[in-house]
Amino acid sequence: MTTEAGETAAPPLLSARGLTKRFAVRRGLLGGASRFLPAVRGVDFDVRAAETLALVGESGSGKTTVGRMVARLVEPDSGSIVFEGEDWLALRGRALRRRRRDLQVVFQDPQTSLNPRLRAGDQVAEPLRVQRLAGRGEIASRVRGLFEDVGLAPEILERFPSELSGGQRQRVAIARALATRPRLLVCDEPVSALDVSIAAQIVNLLLDLKERAGLAYLFIAHDLAVVSRVADAIAVMYLGRVVERGPCEAVLASPLHPYTVALLAAVPDPDPRAARPPHRLAGEPPSAIDPPGGCPFHPRCPIARPRCREETPSLVEKVTGRSVACFYPGEMQ
Amino acid sequence: MSAAGSPRPPVAHLPSPGSPLLSVENLTVELPAGGAMRPALDGVSFALEAGESVALVGESGCGKTQLARAILGLPPESARVSGAVRFGGRDLLGLSDAEWRAVRGREIGLVFQEPASALDPVQTIGAQLLETIRFHFDVPRAEARRLALAALHDVAFPDPEGALSEYPHRLSGGLRQRALLALTLACGPALLLADEPTASLDATVAAQVLDLLDRLRRERRLTLLLVTHDLGLVAAHCDRVLVLYAGRIVEEADTEGLFRSPSHPYTRGLLRSMPRVATAARERGRRYEVIPGQVADLASRETTRGGCAFAPRCPERFEPCDARRPDLYPTVAGRARCFLYGGT
Question: Do residue A249 and residue B294 have CB atoms under 8 angstroms apart?
Answer without folding.
Answer: no
